């Protein structure tokens, strides 16, 4: 299993657009065989940082999702929403693996 951690720098004045973007991706990642663990939005502290976590069974499954999402109409609409609204200023992506479960 691989878990993808995304850290977003967002435009705090466009939070509603980012929320729309996030809701779309939760559904889309799940449709493509992943498990979305949610988006985490600013509350206290930094007003322009948000996070997302989602997992795929393997790095190969994640790479297939990335390839397939580029031609999927709903994914393209989500990409366009972020581009048009400029709700995302930048993002960082990390790949994590879970610690083995209890013995």
From TrEMBL:
Query: Which Gene3D superfamilies does the protein's record reference?
Result: 3.30.70.100
Can you tell me where the transmembrane regions are? none
Pfam families cross-referenced by the UniProt entry: NIPSNAP
Which ranges carry the NIPSNAP domain?
A: 8-99
Q: Tell me where on the tree of life, at the top rank, the source sits.
A: Bacteria
Stretches assigned to coiled coil: none
What this protein is called in its record is NIPSNAP family protein
Species whose genome carries this gene = Streptomyces cahuitamycinicus
